[in-house]
Description:
- It is a single chain.
- The protein has one domain (3-82).
- The protein is built from 4 helices and no strands.
- It has helices spanning 3-37, 41-54, 59-72, 75-82.
- The protein starts with a helix and ends with a helix.
Amino acid sequence: MPLLPLCLSFYLLAVSLSRIFLVLLVLQKVQERWYEKLHEWEKALSAYERQQEKSPDDTNFLYGRMRCLEALGEWYVVSKLFMPS
């Protein structure tokens, strides 16, 4: 088998996999917001908590958790997020 078609095949596979990975990342970020829009507060909160464990410095996940907790009426938990012990 000639080398050029083989290299091209591997390149196309790598490009396809990177695009699939990018789509999955975008869908994962969208998932939390959609749960919020559907008023699925517990699911959204759980999704934000999972994401925040992976990226603790990303404040978007913290704000998402706060919105969900507010909607659930968990004011005490919201206040704990601002005043860690």
